[in-house]
């Protein structure tokens, strides 16, 4: 049990060092407001409700998640009647990121504002600019930390000899993000889109250790994402895509292909089944099969991370071959009223 706890703590430290400190999703387009503020209100409807849940390394613990991240958002596409070929997007997003039974626990609540504008016939060109701000509320439970200085010869632990002095475990900091989005329909049924977001602009301090001689700040994060979507004879849609994230010398690259089969072809009642296979490359290699379903304004998805790199030599002692993870997503786009003009705004998917 002791070894298992040490391995989990070591894994947490390794993840924070190698992959920076921000959340990430395999189904990143299913959580648009955590991906890019410019995607706020960027859909063909009046309101959008989304939810996503990620559980990473479930094999490490049978009674509590080691890494879990639920998130939910609501955004509106407003003034479509007054902004010709565009809309004003407003929204709010919440997520919780917790590690090792809430040893580390952070809640963020962010408000988003975006301006989306279309150009040309049928909005073939679309540009979006988004801003996002809010609060990050972080809590560290220092009672769950154990240090070498606190262990006795019989391996019992005395917390009074841990040799560390902590500041308060509760922190509240301001967060600010910004983003851009571009979409181009260059042929019927074919479009290219890309976006960029800049996160953690406040670069706030993380000062949990009182006796530390170094100042730690949450590093800036840069995210570039995009895709190419095309339909074949109104039967199948193909969506290759990519995502690249960079944060303080750490980087992550995602790329893959999703294919959708229209099981109901009538545009008014269209239903599409999606199957995808993606890859993630950072300090290891991950294969990500995905499955999704779309019917009218409803979308659901599931992804499972299969890590092919054997990082940890003691993996058999801490829960089997490591690591794995899964995600579940749901979203719905609805209309309270039907606008007089259909200023179509494209909602990236899968």
Describe the protein in words.
By secondary structure, this protein is mainly beta. It is 6% helix and 51% strand. The radius of gyration is 22 Å and the shape is globular.
Topology:
Elements: H1 2-18, H2 32-35, E1 47-56, E2 67-78, E3 86-99, E4 104-119, E5 125-140, E6 170-187, E7 190-199, E8 221-232, E9 236-247, E10 250-264, E11 271-281, E12 285-295, E13 298-307, E14 324-334
Antiparallel strand pairs: 1-2, 1-14, 2-3, 3-4, 4-5, 5-6, 6-7, 7-8, 8-9, 9-10, 10-11, 11-12, 12-13, 13-14
Major beta sheet, specifics?
14 strands, antiparallel, barrel
**How do the strands line up in the largest sheet?**
1-2-3-4-5-6-7-8-9-10-11-12-13-14
Unreliable runs, pLDDT <50, ≥5 residues? 1-20, 312-319
DSSP helical segment count: 2
Amino-to-carboxy terminus distance: 40 Å
- Mean of the pLDDT scores? 81
Estimate the global geometry from the Cα principal axes. Answer: globular
Structure classification: mainly beta
